[in-house]
Amino acid sequence: MADEGSSTTSHAPIAGPLASGTTPSLTLARSLNCDSNALLSMPPFDLFVAQLSSDSTEARVDAMKKLSIVGDAMGTKETIEKLIPYLDETIAKSEDSDEDDEILLLLAGQLAELVPGLVPGYEALPLLPTLERLCRIDETVVRDKAVETLNKIVPLLLPGGRYEDGMPFGQLRTTAQRLASAEWFTAKVSAAGVLPTMYAFWNAHAPRGAAADEVRREFRILFKDLSEDDTPMVRRSAAKNLGRFVEAVAGLTKSAEEMIKGGVAQPAVADENKRLVAFEIVPIFQALSADEQDSVRLLAVSCAGSVGCGLVREPGVTADVVLPVVRGGCADLSWRVRHNLSKVFATVTGSLGFVGPKHIARQTEVFKLFSGLLQDSEAEVRAAAVENIARMAQLGGADLFQAHIAPLLPALADDLVMEVRSKLAQTLMDCCDPSICTALTDQIILQEFRPLLENFLNDEFAEVQLHILSKLSRVSHLLGQMDVVVNSILQMARAQNWRVRDAVGRLLPFLAEARGVSFFEDHLLEPWLKIMSDQVADVRAACIAGMPKLLSVCGSEWIMQEILPNYTRMYDESHSYLTRITVLRSFAALAEQDGENALNISDALMEQIVSLMLRGLTDSVPNVRLIAARGLGLVTMSGQCDSGVMNSKIVPALNDLVHQEQDIDCRYQCQLALEAKV
């Protein structure tokens, strides 16, 4: 336990029933056998005990929801010495009664809220017995939440604590032993969930020597016993946590998913740790992957990426150990196993380490397995596999992509299941995202993707269309060679679904960049103006957001000749104040941008913008005046406005409005604009 001389945090008691200035609710007053005046003077702990002892389930639930507040009111010392023992005693009694699982679930979650905010990590050891009891509860969600809380608290126990000899290591060790060797399966299920965290804790904090090595060996034996348990639920829990346990044994600080997806180089693994993974953990992995229960196998095969990283991604080793499991998972009779493997296939592929011409044969085999999943008879498997296409293209390169994936794309694009088409549309655009995939050239994108994009933009489901439209700017430099795609976009400017119109509006400035200013004048200006006056605010906002891009592409002179007259006419003829607000915000967006876009504004255009904003200050609708004042503030902050215009027009107009404006919000925006000048 923590030494009594260790520092504790004191907190002032919260007045009343745990909330200053409040009166007890009628439900609370009725659930407790006392009047409201007595409740107001009741100490936090006494009120908590009274509520938790009530016959009213609602009162007990309310009490447990406020556990962290009670602890904050009591302070660190009293929480550890008084509140935690009481909770442990309550849980002990609940094992012999039918305590509401909802209350136990809340308790498991609230204990996590206490650490490290109220209870420092090095003083959190007294929480372990309570969590251990919760790990034995029959209800699955309670156990899972207790394991989650335990996994959060254990890494925080050190450093900083002053413990008795052997603590906290001794208590953690005995906790793991009791859970793993319990007679009932519930505790064993929880043991599989906490052993990876405890193993990692020993790696990080235990003193080096034979004693620590012996404990780690004991943890490995416990996990092996759990993986061979007669109860499928225990084996399933072992399979679920196998990946984390492999990473703990190997001494990895990041998960396989984080390393492969983030492109992190394989960290060094000590030879002894690598040997332990190969000779002790791999047999567990192989056994669970071949389990008679598909619910076990599906969890085991998804850990293949962690096993590969634990083996340092050595191709010779992973080809003998991991690849056969992947091969078996792709051919498993249970579609759920294939589905789970499909979801992590790119991570598994990256962990195999098959890189370079030397391993082209094995790379080819892996891509053939992946193409099999893309053609699976189950739509869920196909949809999960499709999500990995972009990362697989990056891992294998253009040649393997064109040989094994590209031929399957037309069939997937015509899949009868909308989810498959939707995921494919999304992953195709990810293939064009440099942050995800850089392996595919523009020529390949035009050759393989252009027909698919044309089909997707005409899909009957808006979700499929949106996945393309929202990310088509990634290939804006290729739109000049996609006539059918551009024509489809123009037709979709009149789509019934407002989200589609919104995506088209955000895309039009990129079309201007790809096809030229004259193309925008001839074909895009009319759709742009229609979207500008759309009935849906978010659609109009697309034009506002696109103004800086349009300015950078077309220049100030073109904006003055083509856009300004149309916007001014819309402003003059508007019957709704919303149209005037949209016009003002569009020009204010130009002044809001910094850097290159801001420098494109000519003095003449800036003067026109200022004139329009000044008109807005005299509008009869306060909302319009507010937007105009905010726009002038942006103009002022941009530093692009001529000082003569600023002093002769903007400042006097804002000063007048500050004194004359009756609307407090408009007045505030005018003051902000004046302060921005200073």
In total, the number of strands is 0
Determine Rg (CA atoms, Å): 32 Å
Number of helices, counting only DSSP H or I runs of 4 residues or more: 42
Mean pLDDT: 88
Per DSSP, what share of the residues sits in E-state strands of 2 or more residues?
A: under 5%
Structural class: mainly alpha
Biggest β-sheet strands, sense, barrel: none
**Helicity level:** over 70%
Low-confidence stretches: 1-24, 594-598
* Global outline: globular
User: How many angstroms separate the termini?
Assistant: 59 Å
Keywords:
678 residues, mainly alpha, disordered N terminus
Question: Can you walk through the features of this model?
Answer:
With 678 residues, the chain is mainly alpha-helical. The chain is 71% helix and 0% strand. It contains 42 helices and no strands. It is globular. The two termini are 59 Å apart.
List the helices and strands and how they pair.
Layout: H1 15-18, H2 26-31, H3 36-41, H4 44-52, H5 57-65, H6 67-74, H7 76-94, H8 101-114, H9 127-134, H10 140-153, H11 169-180, H12 185-205, H13 210-227, H14 232-240, H15 242-250, H16 256-261, H17 271-289, H18 294-301, H19 304-310, H20 315-321, H21 323-330, H22 335-343, H23 345-352, H24 360-374, H25 379-386, H26 389-396, H27 398-405, H28 409-413, H29 418-431, H30 442-457, H31 462-469, H32 483-492, H33 498-515, H34 517-532, H35 537-554, H36 556-573, H37 577-592, H38 596-599, H39 603-617, H40 622-638, H41 643-660, H42 664-677
